[in-house]
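S.,

Sequence below, as promised.
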Amino acid sequence: MHGEKAAVKNIKRAKIGSSIFLVAVLFHASAEAQRGKNIPYRADEIGGANTASSGIPGVFDTELAREREFIAEFPLLSIDYGINERWTIGTNGVTTLFGLSALAQREFNQNSPSFYLKSRHAVFADSGWKGTLTGYFLAFNNLVPTGAQKTLKRSRILASSLNISKQAGRQLFGLSSFGVHQIGNRGDRGSIEQEHERTVAFIFTPLWKFKISDNFDSITTATLCPYARSISSNAVARKDSFSGCLGENKLSTVWRALINWRSSESWLWTIGAISIPGTPAQIFPYIGFNTLWSPQDHTAEDEE
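The prediction came back faster than expected:
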């Protein structure tokens, strides 16, 4: 019993320490965003090599949308918008539609819509090094099969990532460090509070980007989740377990290899493959594209 109490105290201290660190980094990022208007950040500003996918924010890179520019990505239907040269906000088209739809709210009960929000800030840039801090918020409801019936599960996910990259000639090396905190409630439509779930996880993704030509580049990532703690409790029992979050093995890894083609200033096409851990590992093809547009461009055309 004493050991369990000590473990709980250590976990609470770790959470408090990580929270203080994240708050400090957020204040630092906000200060840099205010002071750093004249600090070079983009590849062309710091003398680096622009690639086909430069200026298109991904989950694991340090890219930001340009000021007052929209970027839509398919098939995930993510949307990013550049507030200024060092601050990008984003959402997801599907979850936004669910969040705004009263019909969807009635379907999932409890009048709790789905939301996906993202905010990315430039933190630093110096001698080819760049860093961004990204915050994510995801809220959704889903029906989970339980025998002949279905129960309602409500999830809230907070996540933050510190992405760092270093450019060296035609190559760019990066590392994304994620912290994820998920809270969930499960129950029937009459009582959503029957079971509580909580998960804390840390995810790391090294990235390698190579400039093939002015219109082509390649991106390779390997996502690893060495730590995840899940706690599930109800009126009868409590389960507390440690594991990885990408499979039964803590060292399970998701590999991703992509080729990007910039057909024009406004279009980026992507083809590649994703390897999901399993026995054996499963490989899935990936095809997608990004389209960019700016309201300023249309205004200038109308004025002409």
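The longest helix spans residues 2-35.

Coffee later?
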